[in-house]
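seq as requested:
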Amino acid sequence: MPFWKKDLQILKKNGFHSMRKLQAWISACRLRTLPLSISGAIIGSGVAYSEGVFNLSVFVYTILTTLSFQILSNLANDYGDGVKGTDNENRIGPERALQSGIISPKQMRNAIIINVIICLFLVVTLIYQAFGADQFLTSFIFIVLGVFAIIAAIKYTVGTSAYGYKALGDIMVFLFFGWLSVLGTYFLYSKQIDFLMLLPASAVGLLSAGVLNLNNMRDFESDKGSHKHTLAGYLGLKNARNYHLTLILTAMVLMLLYFGLSTQNLPILIIMIGFIPLFIHLSVFYKVQSPKDYDPQLKVLALSTFLLALIFGACHILI
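struct tokens:
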């Protein structure tokens, strides 16, 4: 065989390997989770805009920081479940990066370290954009919250004390995706807390917990075999389904309460348009017979939550 044909074969092989590796990294970032992660920031920003305290720089860095946190959590989750053997052939969801063998544990650890550095840079930049150099105490508190968020993103599945293996994932998702995301974002603009915003913050937190619950219901059997204790695992599939219904319906009620109690004369009928995909999701959810059929609904619920956040923000910006 001519030497140039051998070189061409090597180039094709290397190119194919590089493409597979790139696809593995993209898969590890779990792009379908990203819209859900910024839903709380959109809600907090929408209210800030309606009150005349919106800042474009703060908005951009809030979105970037939130996305970096979510990607860090996804990479750490891939690493933690991978080295523990939780991601195995019995798992129903999409194959993970470490599980596939395309990315090594060392490479994933390095990616996590790089992402932590990016998160810290974005947190500091965001806080400076929001508070400047004068409000030292407030800036310090938010830096502490940022570091705590980074630790929480990693400790979900990494380490012997991973809280995701102790049925604490739901409450942490509720707090970070709901309360911290919405109230924290609003505070970055307004420098104050509006307790009425606990209603939409809780709604987003509950819907985000619903996405996690779907994930845990899908992986119910494999998690049990890997000794990963989730709330769905403790409840059992029947009660986990009822829990899921409670999460979604309660979130919608809280949204309606906020629109009813708000002094801004917000249109309740418009926000109810955002409930339509949620009702469709519940309709499909209750027809599921096989755990693998829960997997498509993760994306559906995540995007439905994102749509609801966009409608919520639009109501505050346009009306």
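Residues 271 and 312 are 6 Å apart (CA to CA).
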